[in-house]
Design brief:
The protein has a single domain, classed as Aminopeptidase (3-Layer(aba) Sandwich), CATH 3.40.630. The strands form 2 sheets. The chain has a 7-stranded mixed β-sheet, sandwiched between helices. Strands 4-5 form a two-stranded antiparallel ribbon. It is built from 6 helices and 9 strands, in the order E-H-H-H-E-E-H-E-E-E-H-E-H-E-E. The relative contact order is 0.16. The protein is α+β, with helices and mostly antiparallel strands.
Length: 183
Amino acid sequence: MLHATTVTKEDELIQIHHLNQQNLKQNLSPGEIQTEGFVTWLYSMELLQQMHTLAPSVLIKENDMVVGYALVTLKEAAVFHPDLQIMMDNLQPLSYQGKPLFSYDFYCMGQVCIHKDYRGKGLFNMLYQKHKDLYCIKYNLIVTEISASNPRSQKAHENVGFKTIHTYHDKIDEWAVVVWDWR
């Protein structure tokens, strides 16, 4: 039976790491990228452990197997997460609903990934609902960036309730900055 929970064991972080590797853009065919989507960043075990120390990430398990994850990435992780620091720098000048984005209590979605055999079964929504259940008391928003070349992810995020507040280009891709407002 599928259930959403948070990371509690080292083995779960190992499984997240493996699922992350399997779905990296550079490890997929162009056809898979187009139809299945992809993840952009490889998270090392050390980075996953450091992030988990700040706040446990959400995962979906079937028995003992991790079949999906959604990484909680607090702003405080930027001190040891260089890619997050770049994201924070890019977010700094942004506004949301007429106020500076950083005037809100928010955290970032580090990455969402679902095992290919479990896609289309509602796990994406389960992951985000668990985030909301766990973190809406402390945070107003979740913020993340989605590659413009990943329309499957963009559509899934829109269906949950994320809204695009900004787009930009960097040396890797074009990105949509999206916000899910829990207020």
